[in-house]
Design brief:
This protein has six helices and eight strands; from the N terminus they run H-H-H-H-E-E-H-E-E-H-E-E-E-E. It folds into two domains: 42 residues, no CATH class; 172 residues, Sortase (Sortase, Chain: A), CATH 2.40.260.10. An eight-stranded mixed barrel has the order 1-2-3-4-7-8-6-5. Helix 5 links the parallel strand 2 and strand 3. It is elongated and about 105 Å long.
Length: 238
């Protein structure tokens, strides 16, 4: 019994000393690192939900892209009505043989940034239905077959998307990585079982389209809510 009492007193004395000293500097460092890592994980994991919440609370944010394109389209049409000449070589009609091995429909592939998606058609009034799925072709402008009265083809998409867009869907079906494109990068459009190949000549930021001489223009918002856009201009090479 005396031995047990002595051991008990020694143990109590030991823990009393530790309690008075408090945690060591090393333990505080590890605790801080653990809290920081958990905080970072919480921020990253909540990012898609945050985007969805923002689009829900501020629904007009998701309409900025389509509305600005509508304004661009109206301005171009107005210019044409005022007899302001549009360059004849904006969209050359190129005869490309039909390949029955290609899928029917219309698709956009950008190997460098992993885009592999359908090109959705919708009117200006219903553009959000197309943007909700991915990439939208602005109807007043051309398609690869050469329609559009000398205008370029314009494809628009959101960058960030919605809660039900996982990262794989976002990369493949939106312009999330559009800023990574550079001059010389290739773009492929499959349209009516014909393959059209384009090459990027310029990627820039701005508030409106500046160059209608390109055959293809890709277009997205830089931030969730901002007048700044990202434009990628490309020319048809074959």
């Amino acid at each position: 019994m005396k031995f047990l009492q002595t051991w008990k007193r020694r143990r109590e004395k030991k823990y009393l000393i530790i309690y008075k000293r408090g945690p060591s500097t090393l333990s505080l460092i590890f605790a801080g690192m653990a809290i920081a890592l958990w905080g970072l994980f919480a921020i990253l994991s909540s990012y898609p939900f945050g985007l969805y919440l923002y689009y829900s609370v501020v629904p007009k944010t998701s309409q900025i892209l389509g509305l600005s394109i509508q304004e661009t389209s109206r301005a171009l049409v107005a210019n044409e009505k005022e007899n302001i000449e549009v360059e004849d070589d904006l969209q050359a009609v190129v005869e490309i043989a039909r390949d029955p091995n290609l899928p029917e429909g219309q698709y956009l592939n950008i190997p460098k940034i992993g885009v592999q998606t359908v090109i959705w058609e919708a009117s200006n009034e219903n553009y959000e239905q197309a943007l909700r799925k991915g990439v939208w072709r602005v109807p007043e402008f051309a398609d690869p077959s050469g329609s559009g009265q000398g205008r370029p083809m314009i494809l628009a998409a959101h960058r960030f998307g919605y809660l039900d867009w996982n990262q794989d869907y976002r990369v493949k079906n939106s312009f999330y990585n559009l800023p990574e494109l550079e001059s010389g990068d290739e773009i492929e459009v499959v349209w009516g079982q014909r393959r059209y190949k384009y090459q990027i000549n310029l990627v820039e930021e701005g508030t409106e389209i500046k160059d209608y001489s390109s055959d293809l223009i890709l277009y997205t918002c830089k931030f969730l809510k901002s007048p700044v856009r990202i434009f990628a201009y490309a020319d048809l090479v074959e």
